[in-house]
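Hi team,

Filling in the usual template for the complex we talked about on Friday. All components are listed, including any nucleic acid strands or ligand strings, so the model treats them as one assembly.

SUBMITTER: L.P.
PURPOSE: interface mapping
COMPONENTS: two
RESIDUES: 915
SEQUENCES:
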Amino acid sequence: MHTKEISAGKSAALIAAVLLSGAALCFAEQNETYDSQKLFNMSPEELMEVSAVSASRLPTQLQYLSAPVTIITAEDIHYSGLTSIPDILQFTPGVDVRKLDRQRTIVGVHGLFGTFSDRTLVLIDGRPAMDPIFGTTHWENLPVMMEDIERIEIVRGPAGAAWGANALNGVINIITKKPDKCSDGLISTTINEYGDSFTHLRYGQTQGKWSWKASGGYEGIEDSDAAGAGKYHSDAGAGGGGGPGDGGGTSTSDFSARDWGRYWKFDTQADYHADEQTKYSMGVSHSSGQEGDFEFTGFYPRKDILTEYTRLFARTDHQIDDDTSIYIQWFGDYWDTHCRVIADHVIYMENDLETQLSFKPADDHTASIGGNIRWNRIDTHNHSDFNENVVGNADEYWAGLFLMDRWAATDRLTLESQLRLDNYSETIADWSARFMAMYALDDKGDHILRAGFARSFRAPGLLFRNLNQQFGSGGSGVKPPTHINNENMYSLETGYNGKLSNNLQVSVDGYYQRFEGLIGPDIGSGGGSTPGDPSPPDPGGGSLGYTMFENIDGADAYGGESSLTYHCDKGKLKVWYAYNKLHTDQLYQSTRALAPATYKYGLTGQLFLDDDWVFNSNYAFQSTIKDTQADTKSYRRLDLTLSRKLAGGKGEFMIGVTDLLNDTTKPVYCPGYQTSMELPGRTFFVRLQFKF
Amino acid sequence: MSNLRKMKTYIIKILAAVIILTQAAFCNLSQAAQTKGKPAIAHASENDIKAAFLYNFIKFTEWPAGKLAEPNTITIGLLGEHPFKDAFDPVKNKPVENKQLIIKDLGRFRHSFPQNDAGNLELANYTEQLRKCHLLFISGSERDNFKAIIDTVKGYGVLTVGETSDFLDIDGIVTFVPGTEKLVFEVNQKVCEQEGLKISSKVLRLARKVIDNDKADAVNKNK
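RESULT (copied from the run log):
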């Protein structure tokens, strides 16, 4: 009773405080401040990147986004010389990135990332690029070439209200260049000291109402042995199948790294501007990959992986009037892989129909309403001596409905509300939300405060619902759960974006998040014990009993990111720092993922030495990640490039080095993927590009 | 109390606070919002962004000394049926780079004048008006007269800016590329240098295409 009284008192105080703050806001100074005034204060760079879409599905000025968003520009990507998307992501605040082998990288916003990193939603042009079986993104197979990327928007925080289920921790939206920005030809080739090569050819044209682009490329990656690394580490994470050898043997003598990859990629898009109001777009992209082993729980199948991945879309955009627009979009995502780990042959086919209507219900409101229907067909086959087909088949359906409103309540205060409901045939209907207030501290809008609440959820992929696997005859293995629910997360967020001068910008963001029902392997449950056994897992393998994926328990996460960016005629410099902490409710609770590196910091700089020479540097540090099985060591990485324009600007030559500070990098022991070998570190490369 | 129950209680409080905050904002602030002008955080129109970019061209361009004969003003001329309406109001007559910014709406291009002394005087005045502009925005409505306009201002250090895809072909200096989702512009550096103008590399770097001075070839600089 006493507790209730105190609680009621606190609630009353809270309500009073809120009402008082509302009243105070009412009487706050309000001046005539116009958008166009703010635009005149913006730099050319800001005007060209005046908006981002990933926070609320609507182009919104960067200063006023309702969630913390980092943008990696095409220029950042170009001058980095990097050849994969995860490589460039590691130089952004709050994003955890670790390389598992030469092709595969795990990525997570605020951690919770692993072999099946499924808590961060990855999109290409707003369309999901995630595997519905594992829930992860196969970065190496994405049919996207680095020079085709217009920008990458990273939402650091739950974004389910905008993008639906599975944007639990954040969103990485890869936005490609539109055909009308590719009206020339480009040929680019990068080769490094180990013989890895990345070649890309693109041509595009705008003719009358049509604009189109076509890109093709080949990427060849040698294995770690060929790249001067590949040394086997016998202290690989325990609990899996052991060490190297066909079928999970323990011998190290015959170990050889087989983490090579070869990929052909193709991407094309055509836009037809029927009139000033209507545009039709369509696109086809495809990647064809051949890779060495997929090492999984210590199992080395010694078989190549063959993957065909196709993405299609068709979309109509129509501007109904100055304030109203609508789009309707269909996309298909088709994956076909022979990967002798969980099944011999895995196919999934996703089809999604989506629409969004954006309008102004009142002068100070901008609203969107929309939804989508998605159906997935998943087939797994087992047609060899390999007896590990353990996932099964499924037909899944999604239906989502969202509503969002942005209300400019006063000259200084903007309130954004997002609400989304999703129904998933395999679990339950669930909801996501984001309520955020943005307040300008000054007339110009140079200093913006943001605070609010968000909620999102993650539905378990087929793997966690259906996995049914027996290890040998020892009575151990994995059984499907009798019942499994969505994971969900509540987030309290605050932030500040400030323009300290025309050249200097600062941002500071903080969050507290509460996770509920995190899914993990309940080791040794035997199918009948209480989920979340607090005792430590037995690292010795062997007779573990049966593991079952269940909603084990929750976790608390808190932290923040800050960055300082300086632009001038001669270039730009960005320094950032991130603190991301996650505490699971149970001491030895597995989240089937790594926690975030607690400390991360970095620096990105571009120096335009003159009209022809550009020097670029990227530096990042990520601290050690503690895990119940094995720690993942801290790492620091420094990349440097120097590029020079050739042939009057038509060509460019670049020399560079990645990971300058390390000869090799140590294995990452993440759940499910106990990589046992060193990977190459310092790598010198050259790149040559021509435009025609 | 379990963690879950604590969290639920906490979330309920937060939701209550959000609802109350929203209600308070609706009740207390809507009246204020109605009495004020355009909201601070609205989506900028393409034309507003173009206007702001013209303003940036002024800030990031160096004119030859002779062009700066009137040391206290700098002039943007708007020729044809331009889309800016009152877009420049926030900066009109205000200082930019220590000079007063003048926005001149020049109407449609006049290509004929009476064949008499008065007409000749009118022509001379009109021509001088165009030539005194530091930046001359030429609307697509003047497409039929592009060459005449460019010929009129050629050699007078005028930064000509168009909004059609063929503007650079007739020796315009900058054009906003039509039909793009975001602002895209191209620069004819060859003509720019012929006019004695120097556009900052900060702006040139952002151009999708820069026509090179020596080779007059189209160079895509947009990475």
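MY TAKE: The two ends of chain A are 78 Å apart (CA to CA). Chain A touches chain B through 84 residues (CB under 8 Å).

Thanks, L.
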